[in-house]
Amino acid sequence: MSTAALIVAAGRGARAAIAGGGPKQYALLGGLPLLERTLSAFLGHPGISVVMTVIHADDRDLYDCATRRLAAHTGAGKLLEPVIGGATRQASVRCGLEALATRAPASVLIHDAARPFVDADTIERVIAALGSSAGAIAAQPVADTLKREGAGGAIAGTVDRQGLWRAQTPQGFRFGAILAAHRRAAGEDRGNFTDDSAVAEWAGIPVALVAGSSRNVKITTAEDLAIADLLLTKPLEPRTGTGFDVHRFGPGDHVWLCGVKIPHDHGLVGHSDADAPLHALTDALLGTIGDGDIGQHFPPSDPTWKGAASSTFLADAARRIAERGGRITNVDVTILCEAPRVGPHRDAMRKAIADVLGLTLDRVGVKATTTETMGFTGRREGLAAMASATVLLPC
Ligand code: MG
């Protein structure tokens, strides 16, 4: 039993004023085109053999753009060329059915592109119901109390909601029966049906109700789109990490601080380039995800890291955060030393860090202080650095 899916995406969305002005089925939802999400649900369902979309004649570029990523989808081979729809939803569905007719599927599931949250279980229930009924639609019992409006906006009465259902899609039918019903409706100039079940009911096709889903909402208005966006937004939690590092001064004519080479009357002693501020910052970043420290990932005993640029360590910590879906919001470094003077190099240091971490400059702080000639930094025996980092991580 082959089952085709026909996705109706030809509407102009007169009720929705989507930012950017385009039809809502191509609007971005959680960063992906709404139509891409809808198509993915059917392409990924094992019970669906082919998927065809009915689009508006003006929307071919939008369709191509919205389906570009689907080439990598496991079900991509099921996606047929789109077909151009008609002036009404009913006419568009008929265009799609006519285009599918040469393939003669046993049944067809007709679905609104504007219902991107349709789940595999709902699709499965409609397909299963077609085993014993020529038609079956996803629907939900009406939960709200219904009022009938009378004169002047006053309530004329309360409608008994017992036995009332809200029709959703997909709406499934034996293919030959629904094609014949649509042809007959067009022939008799009956073009005012609001869903395919109504066409089927008019034609005398029995249609069963099966459980839809509360999440299977139709995105009609800009507000619907905003609410749907929230459903897809993963909550994020802020994470903070700190780091501290010290390197001893030794012979040399320069030091590396925050990835910047600074002339000095000493060098810093270390296995890598001894860039203490970047080491502290790397530890701060690793701390946000509880992923050990710099010495664990880049042991001083490993000759690979002899003389290494510490930006390598910083980039590795950033990669570990990105792999967990995290985003660095800001980092802050304080360097403790009597010399060299940090001020003249501060902006170059901020830029070097920002470039490695992919941050804007306002998210990178570099500061310096002396310790008033006290302690090991005050005696110019070495240099210390501390850092903090804040990351937003999916909960
Ligand atoms: Mg170090």
Q: What brief labels describe this structure?
A:
Spore Coat Polysaccharide Biosynthesis Protein SpsA, Chain A; single chain; elongated; 60s Ribosomal Protein L30, Chain: A; 2 domains; binds magnesium ion; 395 residues; 12 helices; 30% helix; five-stranded mixed sheet; seven-stranded mixed sheet; alpha/beta
Tell me about this structure.
- The chain is α/β, with parallel strands linked by helices and 395 residues long.
- It has 2 domains: 3-232, Spore Coat Polysaccharide Biosynthesis Protein SpsA, Chain A, CATH 3.90.550.10; 236-394, 60s Ribosomal Protein L30, Chain: A (2-Layer Sandwich), CATH 3.30.1330.50.
- The chain has helices at 34-43, 60-67, 89-100, 120-129, 175-187, 196-202, 222-232, 276-288, 294-297, 311-323, 346-357, 375-378, and strands at residues 3-9, 28-29, 32-33, 50-55, 83-84, 107-112, 135-141, 146-149, 155-159, 165-174, 207-211, 236-250, 254-257, 260-263, 267-268, 327-336, 364-369, 382-394.
- A 7-stranded mixed β-sheet has the order 5-4-1-6-10-7-11, sandwiched between helices. Strands 15-12-18-16-17 form a 5-stranded mixed β-sheet.
- A hairpin with a 2-residue loop joins strand 2 (28-29) and strand 3 (32-33).
- Helix 3 crosses helix 5, helix 5 (175-187) crosses helix 6 and helix 8 runs parallel beside helix 10.
- The protein starts with a strand and ends with a strand.
- Residues 245, 247, 270, 276, 279 line the site of magnesium ion (MG).
